[in-house]
Amino acid sequence: MKVSEMRPGIGFNMDGKLCVVVGIEHRTPGNLRAFVQLTYREVLSGKQLDKRMQPTEDLQVVELDRRPMEFLFTDNTGSTFMDLENYDQHVLNKALVGDAIYYLRPNTEVIVLCNDGNPIRVELPASVELTVTDTPPGIKNATATNQLKEATCETGLKTRVPPFIETGEKIKISTADGSYLSRA
Fold first, then answer.
1. pLDDT tens digits for range 120-146
2. All domains of the chain in start order, with CATH
3. Label partner for 100 (CA 20 to 30 A): which of 43, 66, 81, 163?
């Protein structure tokens, strides 16, 4: 597959190592040829790397199994997910789940990428609904500028919200960058 056709979540071999595309950006600087900035994660080491490649270069794609799973809970051993097809439970270590844990409430459905039956990456939905557990009170009549205040959600995620959001409200948050989208 050509580098320009790659998308996040696609598996490929890079120097004999299994990797998963995390991000891809096509760049065309004014005085240079176009190139693709590929961000990928090595599955075994967990390292996230960047590589600049030509859009016409070929990569050997590895077929990954996408399994719907439900997040159950987190403890000292890791995060436990249940396969929705056969109800098997898988414990994923903290390095594999990473920052995705801040968007996961119990019973949240996600897609887990597997290779040879081993989970390698958690794919989140585009947005999630979380409850605000702590935020300072809003200032009345503070509508002159677009001011945001700090808020902590039930999963420990810290984000910035408009002043009218209060403790106990449900909000919708983007999983791409952790930003506030709307009230839920």
1. 888 888 899 999 999 988 766 656 567
2. 3-62 (2.30.30.30), 65-123 (2.40.50.140), 127-183 (2.40.50.140)
3. 163
